[in-house]
Amino acid sequence: MTEHTYKHIELTGSSAESSDQAIKNAIAKASQSVKNMHWFEVVETRGYIENNGVHYWQVTIKVGFKIED
After folding, report:
1. What is the CATH architecture of 6-66?
2. Distances in Å between the alpha carbon of 44 and those of 10, 15, 29?
3. What pLDDT digit, counting tens, does each position of 22-63 carry?
């Protein structure tokens, strides 16, 4: 295994569908400008309640990406 250096950033994705979709939305948007993403870690999950039900999800994640040589 070669040695790599990683950097991580924090993102918050949102979705009216689900917390999983909020994560996918954040990663998809970040992939437009961040290369070499390798992992994510959920830091915080929160939602918005409307009419006694979950109306919206927000999920904050840390995303690690490899710094190119």
Report:
1. 2-Layer Sandwich (3.30)
2. 11, 14, 18
3. 999 999 999 999 999 999 999 999 999 999 999 999 999 999
